[in-house]
Amino acid sequence: MSQITAPLVSIVIPVYNAAPFVGATIQSIIAQTYQNLEIIAVDDGSTDRSVEVIKGFSDSRLRVIASSENLGPAGNWNRALRLAQGKYVKLICCDDLLAPECVARQVAILEDQANADVGLVGCATTIVNTVGKPMMVRGYPGGASGKFRGTDVIRSIVKWGRNPIGEPVSGLFRRQLGATVGEYRGEAAYAIDVDFWVRLLAVSDLYIINEPLCSFRISTTSWSASLGLNQFRDIVRFLRSTAAEHAGLIRSFDLMSGIAMAAVRTIARVAVFKLFA
Question: Which domains occur in the chain, in start order?
Answer without folding.
Answer: 9-276 (3.90.550.10)
